[in-house]
Amino acid sequence: TDEPLVLGIETSCDETGVGIVRGNTLLVDAVASSVDEHARFGGVVPEVASRAHLEAMVPTIERACDTAGVALTDVDAIAVTHGPGLAGALLVGVAAAKSLAFALDKPLYGVNHLASHVAVDQLEHGPLPEPCLALLVSGGHSSLLRVTDVTGDVDPMGATIDDAAGEAFDKVARLLGLPFPGGPHVDRVARDGSTVAIDFPRGLTSRRDLERHRFDFSFSGLKTAVARWVEARERSGEPVPVADVAASFQEAVCDVLVRKALDAASSEGIEDLLIGGGVAANSRLRGMAEERAAKLGIRVRVPRPGLCTDNGAMVAALGSTMVARGRTPSPLDLPADSSLPV
Ligand code: KG4
Ligand code: ZN
């Protein structure tokens, strides 16, 4: 085919990702994660992440090309996450992408990490419905975006004012003695618990909060409420009902995420909701979103879990869309920008 072959590089957090696509077809998604190195710290350590990216970058590019049966010289364009994310981590990917683009004499496309979490869905479900409403929930972000054109017209409607949703999952998992990253473990143990056992707070949903923060999230109050509840239980000498705490906490997070995402879609007259980021792998979030959206006639798209967490395929997917839509390539002095807005 004459569709462009695009290689994407992602290093915004703790995943070194290299993906290769042809048009909207995924050829390979190679990921090297440093998550195990961060586990003992209970969170991602920026210095450790940057070093791990440096070590993994070239081997991951080689592995991606080998697996896809592609020579670097066949690649038509290089895409790279240039923000937002950890500054030192981003720099490793940006430097690698610039070197490749320069050496191969191919165009370079700097892509926005949040927009690429949206664009990745095309690899699984075909062309993006635009406009769509995107709920992005991960360890680093919790945002509601109105996506008119994923390559450049993305309007943030709301975001967390404190912790990200994944961060809340990780902190509560830690309180419950579950390993890092805790989201998948909370998801698993919650299956044996009751969602209504404990009435945990729904942040920024009171009438007064909704006036100023209709589409914003807050999870630090919820995390504190869980900590207080667990502490009180421990003081009383009774065992902590881990499954019930996990299920009730998860219900509170998902309830607010889904409620606000659907409110945002409805208020904009948008009929497609896309959920991305690591927390989109959550089984309750997926189920609840589909159930409530169906009642409003809103369609829900969620990429498979492997494409929800950070990866290189999402970068290649957005890069490929930029090529297809004739966007101007980035200059070879493209900077990494840790707080790049969408
Ligand atoms: O997108 P991602 O891989 O990296 C960031 O950009 O942060 O997201 C990682 C986050 C972690 O906080 C992890 O606990 C959470 O996604 N996560 C989940 C699930 N799987 C991953 N949270 C809830 N339920 C899950 N099944
Ligand atoms: Zn991410």
TrEMBL record:
Can you tell me which residues bind substrate?
L136, V137, S138, G139, G140, D170, G183, D187, N282
- On the tree of life, the source organism's domain of life is Bacteria
Which catalysed reactions does the entry list for this protein? L-threonylcarbamoyladenylate + adenosine(37) in tRNA = N(6)-L-threonylcarbamoyladenosine(37) in tRNA + AMP + H(+)
What's an example of a GO molecular-function annotation for this chain? tRNA N(6)-L-threonylcarbamoyladenine synthase activity
Binding-site residues for Fe cation, renumbered to this chain: H113, H117, D310
According to the UniProt record, one GO cellular component term is: cytoplasm
List, alphabetically, the InterPro entries matched: ATPase_NBD (IPR043129), Gcp-like_dom (IPR000905), KAE1/TsaD (IPR017861), Peptidase_M22_CS (IPR017860), TsaD (IPR022450)
Q: How is the cofactor bound?
A: Binds 1 Fe(2+) ion per subunit.
- Gcp-like domain location: 26-316
Return the Gene3D superfamilies for the record.
3.30.420.40
Tell me the compartments it is located in: Cytoplasm
Record's keyword terms, sorted: Acyltransferase, Cytoplasm, Iron, Metal-binding, Transferase, tRNA processing
Biological process according to GO:
tRNA threonylcarbamoyladenosine modification
Protein EC: 2.3.1.234
| Cofactor(s) essential for the protein | Fe(2+)
Per the record, the similarity remark reads: Belongs to the KAE1 / TsaD family.
The UniProt function text for this chain reads: Required for the formation of a threonylcarbamoyl group on adenosine at position 37 (t(6)A37) in tRNAs that read codons beginning with adenine. Is involved in the transfer of the threonylcarbamoyl moiety of threonylcarbamoyl-AMP (TC-AMP) to the N6 group of A37, together with TsaE and TsaB. TsaD likely plays a direct catalytic role in this reaction.
Name assigned to this protein: tRNA N6-adenosine threonylcarbamoyltransferase
What taxonomic classification does the UniProt entry list for its organism? Bacteria, Bacillati, Actinomycetota, Actinomycetes, Propionibacteriales
Primary gene name:
tsaD
